[in-house]
Amino acid sequence: MEGIVLLYQDFFADWIEVMKDYGLKKLGLHVNTEQSNMADFLCWLKANRPLIERAEERGLTVEYFLHAFGYLLPEDFAGHRENWRQNEDGQRVKDYNCCPSSPELNSVEKNAEALAKQLKQYSHKYHFWVDDDFGKDIICHCEKCRNYSQWQQGLMLYRAMEQGVRMYDTEALFSYLVYGNSVFRDAGIDLGGFFIEFAPFLRRHDLPLAAKENKSYLEKILSLKKNFSHVDVLEYFLSFDYDSFCRGEQYERVKEDVRFYKSLGVEDVMTFAVFPEKNYVKKYGFSGIEKYAKLWS
Ligand SMILES: [Zn+2]
Predict the structure, then answer these.
(1) What was the pLDDT predicted at 219?
(2) Average pLDDT of 21-33?
(3) Residues with Cβ within 5 Å of ion ligand 1?
(4) Which CATH number is 70's domain given?
């Protein structure tokens, strides 16, 4: 299934018919935590429920792409230094996620169930993510966690959210977000209930995946496909953040990448569409979106 992930503030009624007309099947809504937060998004969702329902009635699948972990930590987390992650220098720091061996995960589980209830989505796919590492070491080095790899620690955090969501939706299928730099050599553990969501945001966005500069990303997705039964892709084809809107030379590059993902037999290929200014498509129209959608027809 192919579709578009928008910042929730950029979604308005016209998108529904545009996506239907162009044959795009899935709408993702995303919160950019640098611009807004989960609480604002949930207020927006409550106020815009009729719009979401209309999209679903028209046959679009609607899902939410959320860095939710920080939001799911309990309110008193700040007061529990012993549950913060321990950095390489042995200091407890409250910068990313929490110590995966801490009891905070019980609260995360409970809060994830409550969040899923609020979203009320028809689709069983959930994209609740942990904090972005941006390639940095943000794992916990405490005595209990230090023998777990980055991958395993990630899974502990994701598992807590997944268990919570599953209390609400027994058919939930949960995203494990993998950037190009994630190492999963030691992934030989049960990933039941999860799918891999490959988001190569550190790739070169001005060159196709087949270019030698993107070799590691190409190898990564081939390896993921080999190791896991269900791999989805989250790309940045229509995101101005990456100078990669589907136009000019970029059109050929995106065309080549789409052909590659098609040949791979990936179930869902979603792409971010992030615009350089508010009301961008109201001003300039949807022609870039149409051009992109045609690559899938
Ligand atoms: Zn720890």
Answers:
(1) 92
(2) 95
(3) 99, 101, 140, 142, 145
(4) 3.20.20.80
